[in-house]
Structures are given as C-alpha cells and as structure tokens.
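Forum: Protein Structure Q&A
Topic: Joint prediction for protein chains with partners

I've read a bunch of threads here and the consensus seems to be that you should model interacting components together rather than docking separate models afterwards. I'd like to see that in practice. Below is the full input, 578 residues plus whatever partners are listed. Could one of the regulars post the assembled result?
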Amino acid sequence: MDVMARIEKSLVTAVALADRPGCPPRLSAAMQAAVFPKGARVRPRLCHAVASACGDDEPAATDAAGSAIELLHCASLVHDDLPCFDNAALRRGRPSVHAAFGEPLAVLAGDALIVLAFQTLAKSRCSPLRLAQLIATIGDAVGVPHGISAGQAWECEPQIDLSRYHRSKTGALFAAATVSGAAAAGHENPEAWRTLGETIGEAYQVADDIRDAASDEEEAGKPVGQDAAHGRPNAVLIYGLTGAVSYLHDLVAQGIRTMPPCAHAHELRMLMEQEAKRLVPRRLAASAA
Amino acid sequence: MDVMARIEKSLVTAVALADRPGCPPRLSAAMQAAVFPKGARVRPRLCHAVASACGDDEPAATDAAGSAIELLHCASLVHDDLPCFDNAALRRGRPSVHAAFGEPLAVLAGDALIVLAFQTLAKSRCSPLRLAQLIATIGDAVGVPHGISAGQAWECEPQIDLSRYHRSKTGALFAAATVSGAAAAGHENPEAWRTLGETIGEAYQVADDIRDAASDEEEAGKPVGQDAAHGRPNAVLIYGLTGAVSYLHDLVAQGIRTMPPCAHAHELRMLMEQEAKRLVPRRLAASAA
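Posted by a regular:
Agreed with the consensus. Here's the joint model:
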C-alpha cells in the first residue's frame, strides 16, 4: 500500500470511532467533515517518511502517530475557523465546520478530535514504551507551553512574540511529526530528529508566504495577498521572490544535513528534495529558476 | 499528606507547565482560573479512594490519573460556559473564563487543558502498561462515542436521548474515575470497577436534582428551581423529596455491592457512605430522616 493510502486508511479507522451506535450523529458528521476529504496530509507524510527511514518496524505505531498528528491539525483548523478567531466560512473550498454544523458542534468536534488523537494512540497496540514517548511528544506539540494552543494564544496577548508564535503554531507539529516518526520506529534518540521537523516547518511557512505573495487565488486555493494587506511579515516581501525560493531550498538542505544516521537516509533525502519542489507553485519555480 | 492536599499538589504541578517561559501569560492565567481555587474535586477523590482500596502501589500513577480527570472536568466546564452553550457569566461565584479573559482564550484554555490531561499522564513516569490503560480509559470518558464531548453534543441533535446524554455527559467521567483508580493501582480487572463509578455518577446527578429542587440558592451555590422552570426531568419531581433521598442512598448501596474484592474494601465502603451523606444538604437530610 502506498503511503497516502495507508494514511487515509488509518484516519478512516480512527474517525470511525465516532460512528459507533450511541454517538450523536451530527457530532460524527462534523468530525468527518473536519478530516475528509483529504488535505495534503503533509505532517503524517513527514512522520511516515522518518519512520520509514528508521526501519518502520512497528507499523501500527507509525500509523497511530501519523493519524494523531493529522487529527490534531484538523482540530486546530476547526477551532481557528470559529467566529471568535478567523470567522472563516470556507475551508479548502467547502463550508467550515461551524458554517455547516453551527458553533456548538464546531467547538465539540474540535474537542472530540483532540481526544481522538490520544484515543487512537492508546488503542494502537504499539509497544507501551513507545506509546509513552509518542503521547509526550505529540501532547507537547499541541499543549502548553510551546504547542499549537500556546502559539494561537499569542494572538490574545497585548504584545505578540512573532518568532514563538510561528514556532509554536506551525513548527511544533512538524517537529512532532519527525520526532514521533522516529519514536514510532524505535530510533534510539528520537529527539535528534527535531531540528529536521522544525526546519521543514519553517520551509513550509516560507512556501505559504510565496503562495500568498506570488500566486493567484486559483493556484493557492485561498485568497492571496493577505500578508501585504495586513502588514504581516512575509519572506517574499523581505527577500524578493527568487530570494524566498532559494531560502526555502536552503532550509530544506539545512534540515537534511541535521538528519541523524538511519537505515534509509538516501530515500528520505530524495523525498525531502521532491517535497521542497512540490511546495513552490510550478509557474513560480519556473520563473525563479 | 491527606488526599485533598495530595490532589491539589498534583494539580498545581500539572498546571505549572503553563507557567514555563515562552507560554503566553494570559493563556496561563486563564488555565489557572479554570482549575483554581479548588472545587469539590469529587472525581479525583473517587479515583484516589479506589486506588487506595486497591493498595495504591504506584502513587505517581494515581496522582496523574486524578489530575487528568479533574483537568478534563475543568476543561468541559470552560467550554460549557461559552456563549454558544450556556453563556454563563459566573462559575463557582466568580467570572467564568470567557467572561474574564474573552472567548478566544476560553476556547484555547479548554483545548490546552484537554491536552494537559494527557501530557500529565505521559509525564507521570507511571509504568508504561498502566499508562496505556489510563489513557484509553480516560480518553474514552471524554471523547467519542460515549464520553463528555458526545454527551454534550446530544444537545445539538433534533432528538435528545436523555439517558445517553446523562450517562455520557456526567457518568462517563465518574466511571473513568473508578476504573482508572483501579488501573493506577494495578488491579487485575479495572473494568470491574466501572459499575461503581456509573452508580456514584448517577447518585451525584440525583443529589444535583435534590439541590435544584429543594435547597435555597445560598446552600446550592447556584440558581435553584431550574429543572422545574425548564421542564427538565428531576428525581424530586418524580419521587418526592424523601423518595429522592432514599433513591440516592439506594444507588450508593447498590454501587458498594458491585465493588470487586480488594485489599481495603471496608475503608472504601465507609467513605462511600460518608460521601452519600455529604451529597445531601444537611437541612434536607434532617427533614427527610
């Protein structure tokens, strides 16, 4: 089974827990809408890629880690879209969860998806020692002091710490993807994989900046030009388009250099380089080349 | 250390994770406000009581389980109070979290408290096998298909299943308290403790009905007469006051009869009987006796 099929299968199995008799049907439907149809699944793919590079000797642990990370990402999008935050009526071109199901179910679906991430890990039958590592790693990536919730909460402070904001809101879950991929595969020092995740997270942020500054709405799949309009920092505004594209490639190269030794380092390197190319819209890659 | 001091100490340690450098200070303050000053801590006391009856041979596991359960209870109160649910400006006589910190921080504090419950378990250094059981048990009590989120979501269905609503919204976390108390102490069959928790949860619901129907606002600590005003089912309206009080004692007695054999069964029985008395306001206990 290819990795995308494997990721989708694990997610379908995880979310099916909400389809058991006795679960309120609209909650179940709201959770389905938050997770499917599939997004790019960037974080679980990264988790699987690292697990695979480390031998992937306990596939159930990798599947659970990848699913948990994606469920938490989806939960954060549902809560981010709420009227009290971004008040977004659309997500991936479809109605956001609160637009489709109302605000109470959007709050509850987000809550239930957060919990489902940990239920999925606990039910995975992965070996107990790895489970403890995975729950600590993934929990830290979404909680306090430096996970997604903390990152998002910087928006509620009188003075925002921009670097912490990005590192917590975006970087933390990417870092959890690489660290937990290594932990799921029994790597002796999963934390050694953290820098790779953080760097890829930053590259992803730069790619987002590039799409916002330099692609059109159809290519980006969402409104563009938002950073300039809101005076937010954007790598293209700072380095120019060619500069931002090469900064992105530098970040990926730098991430690759930090990779600890592992069984299948070559395949992982190739994959990272492919991903870096995929991140930049084709037309822009051509014009910046 | 007495059990209440032990519970508070564990909660203080757990919530201190939000006080680490780099955590947004207002998020940290909102989480503190959600957990302190102390409530009755009914669920962690139940968890500790069962653990103690089973020998409490791994106190760190019991502390973590009790804290996780209380953190999840507090998270559910924060989200329940939100404008899109109960829109409650007060909780325990003080401003609710969204009234004090705004809606975005109330959503995020609830999210972060849910995650903190699992971080607390993962960081507890309890033995990995018990950890896996605790996370599965406690996760199921708050997630889908039958945990708190699912219970609350019945309010969003066109037809509410009242029995499931109460069992999921209130009973599930009580059941998790007894089962995880037993699991934390290494009982060979923690699930055998579930009926005790469910029965105590139901007794607690009846006590709530009694306070709503028959005490005054000062005694109950919140507005009374709400069930009659909203046409909600209430044990006093069904059985009368004396009938409801004896139903409550019957439930506790029934729960006690389901207790599996354990090292300190006698102490636990005594404690349960004391609790049952404590649950009914003194004046009413005297008048119903």
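Chain A has 15 helices and two strands.
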